[in-house]
Design goal:
The protein is of the alpha/beta class. The protein has 9 helices and 13 strands.
Amino acid sequence: MTRKIGVIGMGHVGSTVAHYIVADGFADDLVLIDPNEKKVNADATDFEDAMSNLPVHTNLIVNDYSALKDADVVISAVGNIGLQKDNKEHDRFIELPFTKEAVKSVSQKLKDSGFSGILVNITNPCDVITMMYQHFTGFPKNRVIGTGTLLDSSRMRRAVSAELKIDPRSVTGYNLGEHGNSQFTAWSAVRVLGQPITKIAAERNIDLSKLDEVARAGGYTVFHGKHYTNYGIASAAVRLANIIISDAHTEIPVSNYHEEYGTYLSYPAIVGRDGIIEQIKLNLTDDEKEKLQTSANYIRTRFEDTLADMEGAKAN
């Protein structure tokens, strides 16, 4: 079976996603889409130049939405990182004026292409944009997924591993809620060294609130160093795409729609070829439940306000 992936938006993140896919041979066919034709064609030529030194071959298709019809996964990496330049509040919503319009346009083109695979969204603000994609495409909710806190959970695992001097893959657990400032680490679900981290923290006098802040601020730590982030989020997006294509039924924290909250938010789910296969139920503490509700309310309100603004602008 031919594996086909589409990447829409070939900026820092999209091009890194595409490079990861090409270098590791994760797709037989890769569709690259970006309104900047010089950039996307240059990337395609660069990838082709690399192929004679790679162990795998990837067929590249450039700026052809119709080629997405039979794609297994389409990854949205649309964005305008330039809007983040003076973002002192570390607010991912600063890109929303650009991304909300881009998403509406891309959604129509995806519908027109006949695409029926899984849509994976990276575009910020991730949870609101993921919900906008579902709204504008009309695709089933289980087939529209945001990377959400898959990356933030990785940042938490990095913070914990650095504290305990172990491999981050030896840490299990999740950051939940918004891929943004209202996210939080669900410490009740984090395990390390074969035990709940709350027990380890008590024994070793570890400040979990400090580690939570390290995870939350991780993206902006990177951003302040080079004015964009790409490797961490690209690896999260490609991992998610591979889980989908291989029908792995893997438990991961991604932005998925929760009826009880009426919004997309990050929470662990089983993911496979049909997208969200099953939603997991964690035994959260009362404090964590309250934080999750607060985060959900924030995402839902921002989505509703954004949609209302767009419809109002259209009416005028």
